[in-house]
Design a protein that fits this description.
This protein has about 150 residues and is mainly α. It has one domain (about 10-75, about 85-145). It is about 70% helix and about 0% strand. It has helices at about 10-35, 50-65, 65-75, 85-120, 125-145. The protein is extended, with a radius of gyration of 23 Å.
Length: about 150
């Protein structure tokens, strides 16, 4: 059982979005492999932001993230047992545990990514391989998106 057919303005909007996305992906691929081009992921100096600003940005991003609220509202209640004590206390313990685990895992990922980026940045062959690999993937996605049939 497939999706209902598109009608009215929906097919036009779908095609505009599809071709616009394909063009953007193609442009990103070209930026990666053009002579003198650079990867958007290339290590470079950025302006230094104060830690308070970075923390505020991260806090606001997470506060406004609807996925986090959906996780707490849909997943955690199934692990709360009213017969084991206060619901609020159990909710805080489960939420706090999830936050501690997430901070630990994300911190380790950041440290590993920084170390790997520094290691690879000093090796021009790896930078070139990464640019061509990224351009190939982005170009392939652009072609697939442009040639995908309407459902």
């Amino acid at each position: 059982m497939g999706a209902p057919p598109l009608s009215g303005a929906a097919p036009i909007a779908y095609d505009v979005l599809r071709f616009g996305s394909a063009l953007y992906l193609g442009w990103l691929a070209w930026q990666a492999i053009r002579p003198g081009g650079a990867s958007p992921f290339q290590v470079r100096e950025l302006p230094k932001d104060p830690p308070a600003k970075l923390m505020a940005m991260g806090f606001l991003t997470n506060l406004l993230n609807p996925k986090a609220a959906m996780l707490y509202l849909s997943l955690l209640p199934q692990f709360i047992k009213p017969e084991h004590g206060g619901v609020l206390g159990q909710s805080l313990i489960l939420g706090g545990s999830q936050i501690v685990i997430s901070l630990t895992v994300n911190g380790l990922i950041c440290l590993a990514a920084g170390s790997i980026a520094s290691f690879l940045a000093g090796r021009p062959v790896w930078v070139l391989i990464q640019r061509w690999l990224m351009a190939t993937v982005l170009g392939g996605l652009a072609i697939r998106m442009a040639t995908e049939a309407r459902r």
